[in-house]
Specification:
Layout lengths: L1 H21 L1 H30 L6 H25 L6 H12 L2 H6 L5
Length: about 120
């Protein structure tokens, strides 16, 4: 949960910086880039959390299937954003939002709260 919180904070920072530097279009693009990885990651974390309280034994196969789903979903969202947002997407801002969410653990390292 700390990791998701750090990723949400980093995505908010990315959206705010993008808005400050390049306006609302860049902020929306940063939000799309951040959400492309944050939402599947949150769903995967929720699945792992629910699995802890279930009766089934956890297996490495379930973890790898979830990880593949997470990465595939992120690629799908980014592909859809590239296809549907040709006219309005600001690529540097979208990639900035994605990288900020991917590096959310850096915020945990800085605050010494890495799990």
């Amino acid at each position: 949960m700390r990791t998701l919180t750090a990723q949400a904070a980093m995505s908010a920072i990315a959206v705010a910086v993008s808005w400050w530097v390049a306006g609302m279009g860049a902020a929306v693009s940063a939000l799309v880039g951040a959400a492309a990885y944050f939402v599947p990651n949150a769903l995967f974390a929720l699945r792992l959390l629910v699995g802890l309280f279930g009766r089934a034994q956890p297996s490495p196969f379930t973890f790898f299937v979830g990880e593949a789903f997470k990465l595939g979903s992120a690629l799908l969202v980014l592909g859809l954003a590239a296809w549907l947002g040709r006219e309005w997407i600001v690529w540097p801002a979208m990639l900035f939002g994605l990288v900020c969410v991917l590096k959310g653990y850096v915020l945990l390292l800085m605050t010494r709260r890495l799990p």
